[in-house]
Design brief:
Radius of gyration: 41 Å
Largest sheet: 6 strands, mixed
Helix content: 10-25%
Strand order of the largest sheet: 6-5-4-7-8-9
Oligomer: single chain
Structural class: alpha+beta
Amino acid sequence: MALFAFVAPAPAQAVQAVGAVPASAARLAGIHDAVLDVVMLVDESGSETDAKVAAERQTAGTIAQTLLNPRSRVTVVGFGGVNNVAPNQDPTSVACRPTIASGAVNLSYLASCVNTLHRRTEAEGDDTDYATALGQAMTYFNPNTTFGRQSPAGAIKVILMMTDGGLDVHRDTQQYGTDWLAGAHHAIDLQLAVARAEGVQVWPLGFGTDITPADQQYLNFLAANGAQTSCDNRQVSRPHATVVNNPADALNALDQLYAAAGCLGSNSSSVSISGNQTRWLQVSIPAIASDAAISVDRGNPGVQVGFYLPDGAQWANGSAISGTTTAVEVLHITSPQSGQWRIKLTAPPGLASELVSATAFWQGAVDAQITATPSSAQPGQPIDVTLSVLGTNGPITNPATLAQMQVAVSVSGDGLSGPTEIPVSNAGETPGTATGVGDYKGTFTAPHGQGTLTFTGTAAGYGLFATQVPASVDVTSGALPFQSTVQLPVTGSVQAGQSIKGDVVFANTGAARTVRLSLSVNHAYATITSPAGSVRVPPGNPPATPFSITFAGNSPPGPAWLEVKVVDPANPGTVYSAGTLDVTVTRAPGFVAKYLWAIVGVVILLTLGVLLALLRRRARRRAADVRGLYAIIRRNGERVGAELKAPGKRAETFRFVIRDEGEPTERLDYPRPEDSVYTARRGRPGQVNVATPAAEHYDIAVGGSGEPLPSGLQLVFRDARHAPPRFRPSPDGRGTPTGRSARQPADPGRETAPSPPSPSSAPDPWLT
């Protein structure tokens, strides 16, 4: 719970508050301002089953990877109990050494080290020893140990304990005596006393049907007898035990305990998936979230996971994802996009039905301001109080974001018998204002009597770690010797980089006084640029003092809220008057506006360059297009069969076969899938490059006498796209420009120049 204090006077005959607003805006800091130091104790006793241990591993992996503060630390310890079946049994084993939960290397370690958790054999010591487990956990918090000294400064210290049964050390009489239950309880009491002294909270989780009512009662005892500090004042944030009968519910139950211990917001969804199926999950992250982690507990690492933002885009930064090869995959997000995140699941072939769950953990922050009007009041006069709750990135526009938040305003002080709650509501608020839907308004009637009233705004909710920022003012009765009024301009918008101007009007019937102007801003970057320092107010009614507020050029566009206060420089908590303004920040003329015509010229040049490149590409594609080519075969100078036309659609290859070579029915034909084919491509101007089924390569002149093939046929091409060139065969009487024979295939990796044409060759009548 966060507290915001506003102090105003309790009027007598005519009483005016020296100040009517808090000395400073109160911020609800996110949980990232608090660090967690977590030790997880995981039951490995003989009563465990493979399914229970798998659930424990998933749960431990989830929590280990989702600590949101990069300074937080996590340790995972498995525990059983000495049964004296074998010598040198150790009731605890460290699965994950104390590790800071940030950085790719550490997160990768935490994702995999939990896999060493297992069901103990009888030889390993398979009883259930709470005392030794708690004692091992406390070594990581003890300031006299190395690990204790390495605990993050200011951390909230938490023990999360998972067990499927009650305390059972009946075979360890050497340590606990013949009355082992009393001995074990005494040892546990000693550890709980140390936990209280060191400020360590204990949060037990019992799961499974073996948990008896007596076991549950003892788990409650453990929670109630560790440290009772908590991250806020909500009941859910105080240490408590949880028991679930179904081991499948253990993951969700411990997630909730973890979220409560760390004041984290969380929500989850689950779905069953089997081989080759695709399923979707979704979780919600609110607008007040500053950091988040989405954990996918998939059981089988073969289930592929994809994360999709609320705007529909797929998450592409793989460095923000840990545990990709383990049962728990986690996406870590800073300044997350608010809304519904979707998770795509794809199951591998043969996967049996698997329950997959996704949980979003988030920490949040809000800015809050509390004001009261008027700044002076008569007895019985209504005082309007407004508590504005805003997101750190601007106004909260979705009412659902505030639905789980507890908001209240109370007043206490002179003339009142005790704190009095003031009913407040945000009913009627609309998203379009500078404060969105976060204005909670109420009215209080000023009592009789002189003194001081303190108005306190409170806001608490999941995902918020509370701070307290009180403020107080002095109150006098009768006419005040010094009064001031802040006058802000009537304007709806201001351009980033520009300024707005206002005035402060003073009435001073006493001695000269020095004041200072103070500015609070939400969702904008602005400063008071004039006056630069303190303002001296002489006696009388001096001229109004002008002031300027300049908005930085990088101020985000959109609704903004600002408050100007007149304060005492020596004691800023003394506020003489204040004024607020809702304004919309618009973008400043940027580079484009300044250099529009130059940019247009560059765009034109770039466009021409692109068009030229496209034309060249088109020309290259057209040059490679085999449409218009015809293949012809001849034997002994006579054409055999019909010529074969290249495909009618644009293509860069012309594929064909010669059927029945050497037979009377030999002919050209289009290939079937099983055929070995000839492949023709356009080469240099006037040439066709041909690859035979035997991997021989030829350069054949279009309109020439052709190329002899091993079967005695000659392969000839004509081109309907161009008039046939004047062609003179080479001196050897063939149409091969390179002068190669069919038995001397061309080197496809080497360009060759055509042989000089022979003047004795006559045009081929079949190709004209």
